[in-house]
Amino acid sequence: MSAYLFTTPRLGFRTWKEFDLDDFAAINADPEVMRFFQKPYTREDTQAMMERMQNMFEEKGYCYFAVDLLETKELIGAIGLGWKTFESDFTPCVDIGWRIGKKWWNKGLSSEGAKACLDFAKEKQIQEVLSMASTGNLASIQVMKKIGMSYWKDFDHPDLKNHPDIQRCSLYRIQF
């Protein structure tokens, strides 16, 4: 296995590898994990996401990283930074996000990983990081608060026009 870009006490962050596809596709296919997205991802959707993340890493030096639990070397999901360009008064912007398998929920792993990604953003001299989640996604909003982000505003996500149940989003930010 390749070396990690950075670690926390429990997590290792790295770029995506072909061998991640089965585990990440299983996480992305879970309707509970994907509750606040348009739909669960197919294997092809997951493959495309992994390729986008690799390309983003090559272009920007960050992405939603593949994250392993160091103790077992299991892929738990993705935590990292993204580049958002959808039509809005706050884009383009760097955002932070996470998606981990249900097996690892409620263990503080998203918060631990997101804090490390904020440190990574500071090292990259990124001056502001945003995060957004559907207003009903209280678990993700709690992570945003836990990692020191401040509520900015609510907005209707333009990419979710056909999904009114998840279109209203809360936007948080942190500046360095």
Automatic annotation (TrEMBL):
<feature type="domain" description="N-acetyltransferase">
    <location>
        <begin position="11"/>
        <end position="176"/>
    </location>
</feature>
<keyword id="KW-0808">Transferase</keyword>
<dbReference type="GO" id="GO:0016747">
    <property type="term" value="F:acyltransferase activity, transferring groups other than amino-acyl groups"/>
</dbReference>
<dbReference type="Pfam" id="PF13302">
    <property type="entry name" value="Acetyltransf_3"/>
</dbReference>
<protein>
    <submittedName>
        <fullName>RimJ/RimL family protein N-acetyltransferase</fullName>
    </submittedName>
</protein>
<dbReference type="InterPro" id="IPR051531">
    <property type="entry name" value="N-acetyltransferase"/>
</dbReference>
<dbReference type="InterPro" id="IPR000182">
    <property type="entry name" value="GNAT_dom"/>
</dbReference>
<dbReference type="InterPro" id="IPR016181">
    <property type="entry name" value="Acyl_CoA_acyltransferase"/>
</dbReference>
